[in-house]
From TrEMBL:
InterPro entries tied to this protein: Kinase-like_dom_sf, Prot_kinase_dom, STRAD_A/B-like
Entry protein name: Protein kinase domain-containing protein
Domain spans labelled Protein kinase: 12-308
Source species, domain of life: Eukaryota
A single GO BP: protein export from nucleus
Any one GO molecular-function label of the UniProt entry: protein kinase activity
Length: 363
């Protein structure tokens, strides 16, 4: 965006509560930049309720969001400290996260064509980050935000730099993310193993494969698996699949239910058994989830995969693929007086003075 956004909290008006982060460290509000009337997302972190480690991660995330510049990465338009809150201003992504879309509208997963559009955007973001020597380490549906112009990747507080050795040819990381619990299901085997070999950018490709299953199936892989068993299965090479009629078989050749199939088949199970994903989609997912990182393609290589040919043939606009979801836009902004939580939040914001705490958002 070419508009310069102010760091003065008085120039932002809260309109409505959008939601809370999955890790409960922040609340996201729909806001309006009063200088030009532009709708924005206002992410508020209450620094009294989070640990020192999380505080450092939030500061690093805001700095990184301002340093990196790519159309498929969520930028930080402005940031400021107000009382005990740190507020980060970002563009409004009208459809919310892919996690929200699944919960509210696509319980059995997103359409394949929509997934292809989203994955292309996220691969472009990852390719950019990797070229900058960064590993994201938290690719998941809740960190993929969708707007009218496509998808953007967020969740940069988990990102890290890739260190190069003295010969400048083998880049490996051995550090473990400071906060891993929210992202364990998406992390790669080599990252979880924490051995002397370390890991590199290919760990993001594995996480993308897990996200493929999450977007396609409507459920998080390993969601009901004990943590220790999940780690063991990943290291052994066990990988989740896209659920369709080729991988989720509930009837045998005679048309009778399989013995291991619950006779109380619900609508979700029936949907899995009737649909069919394309062979290129299955192939792309399998490539991403290869246990050996050397066998996984890079984001740049994946962008040339046959799966994305359907994007070039598609003539259907994005908003049609996202129906019945409707984006937040100017014409359907909730009235402030009809949202009690927004009123209270707005009063609190206007009553607070800027705190004397010094945060360096420009380093």
């Amino acid at each position: 965006m070419s508009i310069k956004f102010s760091s003065d909290p008085m120039e932002y008006q809260l309109c409505s509560l959008l939601g809370q982060c999955t890790t409960d460290i922040a609340v996201v509000f729909l806001g309006r930049y009063t200088t030009n009337g532009c709708l924005v997302a206002m992410k508020k972190y209450n620094m009294e309720k989070i640990s020192r480690t999380e505080t450092e991660l939030i500061q690093d995330e805001i700095i990184l969001m301002r340093q990196l510049s790519h159309s498929n990465l969520l930028p930080c338009l402005a940031s400021f400290v107000s009382g005990h809150d740190v507020v980060a201003i970002s563009p409004l992504m009208g459809y919310g996260s892919c996690h929200d879309l699944i919960l509210r509208h696509f319980n059995t997963g997103l359409p394949e064509l929509l997934i292809a559009i989203i994955l292309r955007d996220i691969l472009q973001a990852l390719n950019y980050m990797h070229q900058k020597g960064m590993i994201h380490r938290a690719v998941r549906a809740s960190h993929i935000l969708v707007g009218s112009d496509g998808a953007r990747l967020s969740g940069l507080r988990y990102a890290c730099c890739v260190r190069q050795n003295s010969n400048n040819y083998s880049r490996r990381v051995h550090s473990f993310p400071l906060t891993t619990q929210p992202n364990l299901n998406w992390l790669s085997p080599e990252l979880l193993q924490q051995n002397l070999l370390g890991y590199n950018e290919k760990s993001d490709v594995y996480s993308l494969g897990i996200t493929c299953c999450e977007l396609a199936n409507g459920v998080v892989p390993f969601a009901d698996t004990p943590t220790t068993l999940m780690l063991t299965e990943k290291v052994r090479g066990m990988a989740p699949q896209l659920l369709d009629c080729t991988t989720y078989v509930i009837y045998d050749d005679t048309g009778q239910p399989n013995e291991d199939t619950d006779c109380r088949m619900n609508d979700q199970m029936r949907e899995y058994s009737l649909r069919k994903f394309s062979e290129p989609f299955h192939d792309l997912n399998e490539l991403c989830l290869m246990c050996d990182p050397h066998e996984r393609p890079t984001p740049a290589q994946l962008l040339t995969h046959a799966f994305f040919k359907q994007n070039r043939r598609n003539t259907q606009p994005l908003y049609e693929l996202l129906l019945p979801a409707v984006p937040i836009a100017e014409e359907n902004v909730p009235e402030i007086q009809d949202d009690l939580e927004s009123i209270l939040a707005e009063d609190k914001m206007s009553a607070l003075d800027l705190c004397s705490v010094n945060w360096d958002f420009d380093r």
